[in-house]
Amino acid sequence: MTSKRTRDRLISRLREQGIQNEKVLNVIRDTPRHIFIDEALSHRAYEDTALPIGFNQTISQPYIVARMTELLLEDGPRQNVLEVGTGSGYQTAVLAQLVGQVFSVERIRGLQEKARKRIQQLRLRNVMFRHTDGGMGWPDKGPFDGIMVTAAPEQVPQELLDQLAVGGVLVIPVGDGQGQVLMKISRVAEDQFERKVLEPVRFVPLLAGVIR
Fold first, then answer.
1. Is-catalytic flag, 60?
2. Tell me: the pLDDT tens digits for 110-122?
3. Are strands 101-106 and 80-84 parallel, antiparallel or unpaired?
């Protein structure tokens, strides 16, 4: 289940799909994905597939985690990163090994409490959590030089654009039930954003409100 061969097979598949950042690939190889999912599904932990984690949420497939992380880092290192949608904490753990500080928000308290324990188990000490409506971000900790959103709004929330530093990058899926695309948005000046549409994706919707 957690053998080196199993993990190496996953990394080979990610390379075949175009992931090139060696730091990202090494972190995904070394991060124990099986601790982020229920034991009954742990035998599938290193398949390149999304898996259910309860609360009608999923842990993203490793390709998407690698792709979004690579996009966040492709223009240079990131120090202050907001993650919208902690989920299982897997993406959080990958980010925490590659950036200075992660501020992770999640609307479902039960998910976040599990994620917090897993991050502690991995001894990652550069992550802060907040139980809040993700679309509002975390203004007190901004501006951020990186923002990653792991659920899809129908439109990019203005609140997140406002919290992006000049020179910062927002990686976000956008769309509805008819279709979603992955976008990279760079803030090139105070009032100027560059938007790139990259590829079709499928994420759970970004919903308002919190669940206690």
1. yes
2. 999 999 999 999 9
3. parallel
